[in-house]
Write a structure and sequence with these properties.
about 150 residues; 7 helices; mainly alpha; 2 domains; single chain
């Protein structure tokens, strides 16, 4: 009798990326070229939670968090001018930043929370610090006008 291995059923991270990029493309097409296609925005809004999930997975799976954050920072800078041109029609827009800045703030908050978790402080102090870090991340997201604002950081 043949030894059949159980096949895993599911979606790979590559598959998730493809879905998220497709959803994002639809959203951006609506915003720039095909106005009036509201369904494209609704589908496009699915991209953010998928990308956010992938960022968190990357945070937990990376071997070098500094390199991970460095790449994210580099692409945040690289994509800022095209993002500004698409959303505001000019190369500098101080009132709306791309989503990579949102993810970067979230990762910094996650790092801070992880450092608090492994500290030798008592549980009450840890709880207060985690709440403060979370609030600070939200506030930074709101003040810097990142995509999805402070709520995207959360």
């Amino acid at each position: 009798m043949m030894n059949l291995e159980k096949r895993k059923i599911g979606i790979t991270s590559f598959g998730l990326h493809v879905f998220a990029m497709t959803f994002m493309l639809l959203d951006h097409l609506w915003a720039t070229m095909m106005t009036g296609q509201e369904w494209m925005t609704n589908v496009g809004r699915l991209a953010f939670p998928i990308f956010a999930f992938m960022i968190v997975e990357g945070y937990f799976r990376t071997r070098n968090i500094k390199k991970y954050m460095g790449r994210l920072l580099a692409f945040a800078f690289i994509s800022e001018i095209p993002f500004n041109l698409m959303t505001g029609g000019r190369w500098l827009n101080l009132y709306h930043q791309n989503v990579l800045w949102t993810f970067l703030i979230a990762i910094v908050c996650m790092l801070g929370i992880d450092k608090v978790k492994i500290s030798n402080r008592n549980i009450a102090v840890k709880t207060v610090l985690v709440i403060l870090i979370t609030f600070l991340g939200w506030a930074i997201g709101m003040v810097t006008f990142v995509d999805y604002y402070g709520f995207g950081v959360l």
